[in-house]
Design brief:
By secondary structure, the chain is of the alpha/beta class. It has one domain (about 20-25, about 45-160): Glutaredoxin, CATH 3.40.30.10. Helix content is about 25%, strand content about 20%. The protein is built from four helices and eight strands; from the N terminus they run ββββαβαβαββα. The chain has a six-stranded mixed β-sheet. A two-stranded antiparallel sheet has the order 2-3. Strand 4 (about 50-55), helix 1 and strand 5 (about 85-90) form a beta-alpha-beta unit. GO terms for molecular function: oxidoreductase activity. This is Thiol:disulfide interchange protein TlpA. It comes from Sphingomonas mucosissima. InterPro entries: Redoxin, Thioredoxin-like_sf, Thioredoxin_domain, Thioredoxin_ResA/DsbE_sf.
Length: about 160
């Protein structure tokens, strides 16, 4: 899948970059497993109790790579208010850790979803970022790359942290 393709089963064309979608507000997070940085299985349910921003991305996705530095900055700025998870959709897990190291992404941890469970559950293209409240309900999602250090993203995250 290239950066401008959609996940299998998706019927709509990719959304414009940085498009905020609130049409899924209130929907529960899917019961899908992925791997934490230590290689242990986890799921979004394990992060309940604090708002969670989930960024679905891949090392081969140019818009994903472009937004990573600003996502890293946002993770630092929102520490203690919002948990930011960068969940790679790469099937080759071993590429993800070095990607973070090479780009000095110090505020993000390399979570991996090699089975594409989250992308398939949401039927989305990459990058897609989904904000969940502390109870695991979706607040909004952004289809396409966004400047996570910009004013619009900051306002969205502050809204979720309130």
């Amino acid at each position: 899948m290239t950066s401008d393709e959609v996940a299998p089963g998706t019927k709509q064309p990719p959304a414009a970059a940085g498009t905020v979608d609130r049409s899924h507000k209130g929907e529960a997070a899917p019961a899908v497993s992925f791997y934490d940085p230590a290689g242990k299985k986890t799921s979004l349910a394990d992060f309940r109790g604090q708002p969670v921003l989930v960024n679905l991305w891949a090392t081969w996705c140019a818009p994903c790579i472009k937004e990573m530095p600003s996502l890293d900055t946002a993770a630092a700025a929102m520490r203690g208010k919002i948990r930011v998870l960068a969940v790679s959709q790469d099937m080759e897990r071993e590429k993800v850790g070095p990607f973070f190291t090479e780009r000095k992404l110090a505020n993000l941890a390399p979570y991996v979803d090699p089975d594409l469970g989250l992308s398939l559950a949401y039927k989305v293209n990459l990058p897609t970022t989904i904000m969940f409240d502390a109870e695991g309900r979706e607040l909004w999602r952004v289809s396409g790359a966004m400047d996570w250090a910009g004013a619009e993203a900051k306002a969205l995250m502050e809204e979720a942290a309130a």
